[in-house]
Amino acid sequence: MARNRIDKEDALDKHLGLLKLVQILSFLVVFVAGIIIGLAASSHMNQYFTSQAKLFFTNNVASAQISPEDGNCTTIPTPCHTLDCLSIDTFARPNNLTHSMTDEELFWRASLLPYKEDYPFHRVPKVAFMFLTRGPLPMLPLWERFFKGHHKYFSIYVHANPDYELNVSTDSPFYGRKIPSLDVEWGTVLLVDAEKRLLANALLDFSNERFVLLSESCIPVYNFPTVYKYLIDSEQSFVESYDEPTRYGRGRYSRKMLPDIQLYQWRKGSQWFEMQRNVAVYIVSDTKYYTIFKKYCKPACYPDEHYIPTFLNMFHGLLTANRTVTWVDWSLGGPHPATYTAVNITESFIRSIRNNGTQCSYNSDTTSVCHLFARKFDPSALEPLLNLTSTVMEF
User: Fold this and answer.
1) CA distances from 138 to 4, 131, 382, 386 (A)
2) Which residues make Cβ contacts (< 8 Å) with residue 109, sequence separation at least 6?
3) Mean pLDDT for the chain?
4) The pTM is what?
5) What does the domain layout of the chain look like in residue ranges?
């Protein structure tokens, strides 16, 4: 009996030991299988997410691809050919004028001022020539001759009717220089909108230091080096701003502008201004006084003759020379100045504009060079003007 009990106990112990061994082996098999399955799943997931990331990246880069000719983003010469839309060159010197910004967005963007005074790139100060026109530029060949050989020192911006296409050759300095424009109506605040639109687009290029507003009937009366030095070296802007105690001046003031604009602050001046960069920023940054003019300065009040002269007189008068550098003849009277045709264009006439014996202020001194540009010139005046460029205007 005792022997049988011992044999049964030994058999039970062997059975339990075998059972534990099977359990251990089963656990090991499950554990190893789990590891193998986990590794396989991990590899598959890595491949999946990697492929998805590549697909996402490729699709987004492809959808954002902009060639240097079509947009303001530059392509970085890397193996991936990624785009660097935030490069300092793209930000500070956009090479394309096309954008989809509203005026509100554009003016905000143009009003940005860096606190740091020195530039992190080589900067050659440029003059921004801003042409406000209904359509064609009849004096374009004259301007092309004026600009020839000086491309590093100027920028061109054209505001024309939205449906007008500026068809010029690819080697013209006017090629691709039309900004996103809106309709303009003479005598209304829409003219001020166009002026601010030109200034804002020009301000996007941090190389632009001076800003001159011109019309399609304007001409230069000096060569480019003379104009460039005169403007870049000037300590003040050339914005006409004067008090005219007649119905054409004070008579256009509305008492509804009180208390923000008072009669003694009201000014009038030529629409055709020239200004330095900080003054241009002040203009595009203003909302309050522009809104007042938009609401209360309506015909026979003309915002383009009063808004900028009044605004600068109120806040930045010391920054302006209180004169214009664009000659015009108002001797005939009426709402528009005299227009000169081919029969009027003579050497003595152009010389009389260049130096008519008057003196004007320039950097706390006086000079006989007071007008760099002139208007209004009929398209028929182009040929005789071209004949005088080398002998009188020296370009």
Assistant:
1) 127, 12, 8, 12
2) 101, 200, 204
3) 86
4) 0.80
5) 101-326
